[in-house]
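REQUEST FORM: STRUCTURE PREDICTION
Request ID: SP-0412
Submitted by: Lab K.M.
Chain count: 1
Length (residues): 340
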Amino acid sequence: MTQTKRLDTSRRNFVIGSATAVSTFFIGRSRALAEEAATTLQFATVAPAGTPWSVHVDRLRNRVKEQTGGRYKVKVYLGGALGDEQTTASRCRKGGIAGWAGTTGALAGIIPELAALELPYLFPDLATADKIIDQHVRTDIEAMLERAGFKLLFFSENGHRSIGTNFGFVKKPADLKGKKIRVQPGDLGNWMLASMGASPQGIPVTEVMPALQTGLVDGFDNTPLFTFAASWYQSITHFTLTEHSYQPGLAVMSMEVWKTLPADVQALLVGDIQAESEFGRKGVRKLAPDLIANFGAAGIAVAELTAEERAAFKKASQSTHKKFTDKFGSTFYKAITKHL
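STATUS: Completed
RESULT:
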């Protein structure tokens, strides 16, 4: 294991990032008509302001303003203002919220098979993940979403999940023995961290900070991106780049709301899925080096696993794959893995 050097503590302008946004393009109308018949589409996300995703939102919101004169408006509620990921996803599915953006793991409560994308050490690298998601299983994902009541707008990502703690580095699975680690609620998070030796605690995003501050948990698994975006870094002393799970993000729209829109507006809402997905991922990945450097600036020790240490975590967590397919089926899993 190699430990990166701590940076000058004067670097306090931390870079933050997270996952969520909405794609919207509309036909231009006169300003007067727009003011008379303005339609506001509400979108929910737990991603905070000042992130790559909020930049994405602003870009798309500007397009709406320019092309509709205000006839259609997008109002995005950031930082979990409308509730946690699972609650808002459910509301979106029922049409109570027009759109939702978050992680594939958060949608697993509604579409369990979708969590196959986040199985431990599934993708060897980001290029492979992009290719498989965009070229090989996108239609499968769209079909699953539509059956569940969602329309896919585009993909992005949260990144690779690693482990932040208040007790030291996690160099081997044994270092997690008996440690209470916050995981994203759901079977996958529980299975994955338990296989590594931890005592997983499924806690919603909006409740994690109090859990860390009161000692209810000893750490968490999430990406550097979200660690800074949600300010969780304030309650840890160490961050180990286990990178045990790649977590895609996506923006969707309620199918119930979608069906009320005219065909031309639907086409503009979807836009160019590939171009939007590439834009979102690029914004997140551009921050990666700065995010790692920010741990040192925040006084947090950060370490990267050696090849041998990584192999030990991969071996320990492979049982999760079988548990997943035994419970949720192997069709989507095989659609992914046949291209690895």
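NOTES: The longest helix spans residues 52-68.
Reviewed by: T.R.
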